[in-house]
Amino acid sequence: TLQLEADPGIYSDLEDIGIEDFNAPLSFRALYFRRPNLIWTFAVIANMKNEFPVIGGIGARWLPTDKVTVDILLPRPQISYQLSDKARLFAGAELKGGGYRVAENFGTLVGRPDLNDQDLSYREIRAGAGIYWKFTNKLSAVVEGGWVIDGRFKFRDRNLQFNGDGAGYFQIALKGSY
Fold it and tell me: What is the pTM assigned to this prediction?
């Protein structure tokens, strides 16, 4: 199975929008079903505004039992346990990030005018656990918490990086589809 996905959009503060605020990250995945309980994957993700514009790798999804799933997949390796048809517990890690353009006056507001209207890449490494609850086939919720192990903000054109200290995180998300 082959998958290609594009996420075009405006990646900015939505003030003074210009062509430099537009981005269209792409991802390509190839899936190989070796056995009913083992899926090999290959993925490449391209985002020209990120610190590393193109990343990729191989991974796998293994189902050792009908209740346990092991995902060795970036950006979110995890192990999960199916409690019921509606609920699944999970624990693992996540690599989050993105690329954005800051406002034309961002640097001036923080005392660094050289950072005005610059591209910023953001990366975060998390470890956490949570529960996924399926209300219907089209509506679900996720409650998750954990620790941000590493966070980085980089202005490539200015060769400037800010490193964040570790911090806890908690999130509640409601997901719907049609």
Answer: 0.76
